[in-house]
Here is the input.
Amino acid sequence: MDNILITVRIADREYRLNIKREQEELVRAAGKRINENINKYAENYDFKDKQDLLAMVVLQNTIKAMELDRQVSFQQNQLSGKLNEINEVLTDCLSTK
Here is the structure.
């Protein structure tokens, strides 16, 4: 395995992560986005501590992930249905010849 050890700073805390080398850019970008979202919430809402901000970022990201899961599931179901219809049409055409 080609793993590397990196440090990612989130909400003023450092986290050492052992990740695959090819994931480094994605992990660092994710950390940056989390911090950007924390800063947005800090500017717009009252909060007691960073945990409140982290909770809001987690909630926001979980909602987005659930929406994407729904969309993917819907698209897969629609695609599967359409492919079955096409298969039936082709099967009927081939069986009539």
Summary: The radius of gyration is 23 Å.
